[in-house]
Amino acid sequence: MSFLAATRRAVRPSFASCSRALATEAAAPLAGAADAQAAPVASSSTSAPAPHNSPAFDPESTVGDAFVHVPLRTFYPKPPASPVAPSTEPMVVPLPAPLFNVPARPSLLHKIVTAHLSCLRAGTASTKNRAEVSFSGKKMRPQKGTGRARLGDRGSPMLKGGGRAFGPRPKGPEGWQRKINRKEEQLGLRVSLSEKWRSGNLVVVDKLGLDEPRTRVLSQKLASRGWTDALFVTAAATGADEGVQARAAFELAVGNIPNVALVTDVKDLTVWDIVKRRSVVVELEAVDEVIERVDPYGPFVDQYEFDPEEEFEFDEAELEGEAEAALADAVAAEEAQLPAEARV
User: What HAMAP family does the record tag this protein with (predicted)?
Assistant: First the structure.
């Protein structure tokens, strides 16, 4: 069972029920992990609700737990009105702590971000040296007798408008390439997402979509939730035409809003995309893909197990029939090559 399937069953209004349900569903990949010690969130009708960009719990209390709890919000479609009073306890999605509660590594993030920005450079910066400026090569004044400093031609770097000494020269994009190891990049993704979770800026939404591609409507909706500077991570739109159209409308509308970015393919998610924005909003359908992106060979990803008995299962009767047919074809071919009088 995928981690997302286990998460769907684990989404409950309390932390304790989430941990118990997910521990039952994902016991195999989480063997040896520490037991979850999450406690229900104390709620009061008089207390103000937590803001959208703040954690619904104390991150320090989850150190050593098997899961971290990310708030789950409803974005699209709008939930129908219910006569029953909504629960004051927040909906949460438990995520594996080894991936989303990693200690801070500022030096690693700096290394990855600088390498990423360096790779984006075109390498077209260019200046003219003293041989390329449009001036004569004649000596400006005599070497001696004027009482002034000696000068050469008009293109000297000491003069205004002269050539540039040791200026940048074009070296193309290849000249700015900086290599980052794959494991370093994956660790950087885990560190950056963990920092977003600790600051309360990591949120999971059930679905992203819009009825119509209206930028003003979406901008107001994001502003009301505090997502004016956010990164949205979505999964590929599948299913009915209505879901595809709603996703397309959301993509069109979000492209016109400044400081809001959208990643439709989790494989393209980078550390720079995460640290550049204040909030990270992940669609529920993309949770499994994000986990696979940050740790593709870890225990939280469903790995294909090769079953030799299933792979090489064959029918003996079918093989015997094929062998007899091949033998009959070979005999017929040999008889066709014999003279007519020698044939039986």
Answer: Ribosomal_uL4_B (MF_01328_B)
